[in-house]
Specification:
five-stranded antiparallel β-sheet; 17% helix
């Protein structure tokens, strides 16, 4: 069983007040680099996190590389091995 991992979030980049936390159970990989999601903020590369109470959270990054780094960091923290997360491949 993977260690319990929480992702804390706030309302902005410089805000130090934590609004909540997501207890991560698993995640779904980032979409393909040639097919970004169109959001109200423009193009984004998204992935989904499933939490321990079966709620899906959608997180997006401005670049595909950043989204992959996030998913790889989360997988590593959860003890999930993924060959695509090798630093030389990102």
């Amino acid at each position: 069983m993977a260690p319990e991992l929480h992702l804390y979030y706030s309302s902005g980049e410089t805000d130090l007040n934590v609004l909540g936390a997501i207890s991560i159970l698993s995640l779904i990989k980032v979409g393909e680099p040639n097919f970004p999601t169109i959001t109200e903020c423009g193009e984004a590369y998204c992935f989904e996190i499933l939490d321990t109470v079966n709620t899906n959270w959608r997180l997006c990054a401005k670049s595909w590389k950043r989204a992959v780094k996030w998913t790889c960091a989360i997988k590593k923290s959860l003890g999930i091995e993924d060959a695509t997360c090798d630093d030389s491949k990102i």
